[in-house]
Amino acid sequence: MTDSPALLSAAELLDLYARGDLSPIEATQAALDRIEELDGPINAFCLVDREGALAAAAESEARWRAGEPCGLIDGVPSTLKDVVWVKGWPMGWGSNANPDTTPCAEDAPSVARLREHGGVFLGKTTTPEYGWKGLTDSPKTGITRNPWNTEKTTGGSSGGAAAAAALGMGALHIGTDGGGSIRIPAGFTGVVGHKPSYGRVPAFRVSKFGTLAHVGPIARTVEDAALMLTVIAKPDARDWYAGPFEDRDYRDGLENGVAGLRIAWCTDIGLGACDPEIAALFETAVAVLAEQGARVDRIDLDLSEAKEIFRVLWYAGAGRIVDSLPADSHHLIDPGLREIAAEGAGYSLGRYMDAIDARFAFGQRLKLLHRDYDLLATPTLPIPAFAAGQELADPETQERWPDWTPFSYPFNVTQQPAATVPCGLTSAGLPAGLQLVGPRHDDALVLRAIRAYEARNPARLPSAPVVS
Questions:
Q1: Predicted model pTM
Q2: Which sequence positions are flagged as catalytic?
């Protein structure tokens, strides 16, 4: 066991609470101390509620002493991304153009479930403006930096949540993922991120990016991600899109391994080349799955049609965001968001509906892939983290952020479950990630498979930010 409660998993914390060997107040204070000590060079938080967190922890401690914890995560320090409603806290959206600073009157479904199960809310984590890009920087909150090297990006848009997870500033973290926004920062920071099947985790209010946007967990371990999914996947009548409730604990069967599973893998899906060092780390990870009894086949897979589908749907959503803001505030918006919003607002109805039709065909093709394979494995990202504060890894060859994250957004188009687990470090000491993608609604299989890899290769995380 580590010396600091802040570096324990949620599962370890809960075990200690049950035995009376640790108090939720002690765990919460340790997490708050980590935030105060370490967040300066990282900038993972845009709101910290020390008083509220300690009060909630005291209530949790009383419940544990009485032998009556109120739920599955009672007393676990948690964070919430600044694009989800939290009762009593203002919604910032990472935006200077957002005119409403009124505290929210209700919790989003995922937040409500965490609260009902005793989660202790430390604060809100940073996001790019309205979560529009795969980086985490905004005119309002500045640049969020990578714990492994503060000159590098965390990725985004749940970059604050991933950085907080990596440094022990909370055990459980709500992220959202419209084009990779859970998996990109989890991959760049060396933690676990799971984008559930669309509708698995109820959402309210619905994202302006529509049915691309998923809500899911970021954590330091797969077990914690499964625990968190169990909590936040509970039903909520406010989400008309939500699928049928699956009454299960996602930790059940988590240790069943991958023996007998059929896993397809590739490092090129027709959307750009993969860095050789990242590819080598990924292929070593695939070999680990094979050693555990999975049948792994390298396949040729061209998913290049996803680029146009995603562009139309994403840019149109950006247009809706900017259109919803007062015209006299538009000059305050991140210039990149303004640019894609202007393009999206100009799309014809025909182009938009063509993208909807193409999405159907694309999703059908990926669904048919799973007749032959249980899972698809790819690198989480084709490159390691690059310089913080810039949208593009290579400005000479790339136009917008999706150009450097080809393995993430196609699976928002298809709404499949996809999760990332760290699979080693580059020679420069930056994390690489293994992504596993499953059939729609089979989140349990995806979590089980990434746990099988993690069991052989536990992640190691930085004890403090590496300041360059």
A1: 0.98
A2: 81, 157, 181
